[in-house]
Amino acid sequence: MTELVTVEGSGAALAERYSNALMNTFGPPKRVLVRGEGAYLWDADGRKYLDLLGGLAVNSLGHAHPFIVSAVTSQLATLGHVSNFFASAPQIALAEKLLSLFDVPGKVFFTNSGTEANEAAFKITRKTGRTKIVSTVGAFHGRTMGALAITWKPAYREAFAPLPGDVTFVPYGDAAALAAAVDDQTAAVVLEPIQGENGVVVPPDGYLEAARQITTDHGALLWIDEIQTGVGRTGDWFAFQAAGITPDIVTVAKGLGAGIPIGACLGFGAAADLLQPGNHGTTFGGNPVAAIAGLAVLTVIERDGLLANVNAVGNHLVSSIEALDHPLIAGVRGRGLLLAIQLTAPVSDQVAALALDAGFVVNNPIPGAIRLAPPYILSKADADSFVAALPGLLDACDLEGS
């Protein structure tokens, strides 16, 4: 690696090279990171950070997990890629393992990312013969054109209109509004079980069950987007499972590969067979290296009892943050290790910047909330170090300038 990439020089110098060489789609980088181990990261200037964002909920097992490193390097040395004219053992094994986490038979289409998983699901809905999709206010489903069509945020959508149409948005968590919007022309309802990008918004109890009944009554598909919440993030394998329902489509990505790009669209019942040969494709989806990474992630989560750790450390974070009783903290919402610290003033950008300077990577998805999506291996001691620093970060905010 050192022969191929030069990381000499300061972080500022590397950031300037980044700005000169990469398209400005993400803004200037906050730091140039050069190494990760467990729940920690190091930047080009040698500073250490506790990773409480996990690569936006991707690094489910932290950084450089030895089991993932071993599985991926071994697979790459054996069989790195084949076209989809052929199958590979890791692809088959991962599909079977994913399906074993559900209570009903289904089938899997592998992709490279979450937005691609949603593109596949979008095409499945068209195969019903209907075109109308109902999505929700505050929803985020990705940035490709189909996924963007069911994403709510106007700032993401407006520059790319017209998008693939016939999408209706209803208030999130409002079962009555959903019932009023769904009719016998509706192909699908797409829902996140928790809205991550909208500041970790949890719907009221009974919402997903109502969505299941409403879609069933009208012959529409229920499509659950588990891209951020799935693969153990909320303390269950998938967040919708706490509601005891069976969706027709589930899309997953992020935590599945623990840093190796992979996503999946799972269909159940009749939805599993709607796509037929020639309807859809992907060059890299189901790649043996990505598939073995997904299989390794699921294996480690089971082997190390990480769902229990997600619940235990998540609950510990919630109670510890709420116990601070700080005037800028309105509460904590979310489940497992997908949490948002709700703020009483719109200063999340300041808090995130101050936290980074203090050695903590967090995220500010909306002005009034700080999002935490750390690796599942986070310890209570790691969590306590952030909680101890949090009052000082909040006290340093400039409320007059917010």
Task: Explain how this protein is built.
- With 402 residues, the chain is an alpha/beta fold.
- 35% of the residues lie in helices and 18% in strands.
- It contains 13 helices and 15 strands.
- It has helices at 11-21, 54-57, 66-78, 89-100, 114-126, 145-149, 154-157, 175-181, 207-217, 288-303, 306-323, 348-358, 380-395; strands spanning 33-37, 40-43, 48-51, 106-111, 132-136, 167-170, 186-191, 221-225, 249-252, 263-268, 329-335, 338-343, 360-361, 363-366, 369-372.
- A seven-stranded mixed beta sheet has the order 4-10-9-8-7-5-6, with helices on both faces.
- Helix 4 (89-100) packs parallel to helix 10 and helix 11 (306-323) packs parallel to helix 13 (380-395).
- InterPro entries: AcOrn/SuccOrn_fam (IPR004636), Aminotrans_3 (IPR005814), Aminotrans_3_PPA_site (IPR049704), Class-III_PLP-dep_AT (IPR050103), PyrdxlP-dep_Trfase (IPR015424), PyrdxlP-dep_Trfase_major (IPR015421), PyrdxlP-dep_Trfase_small (IPR015422).
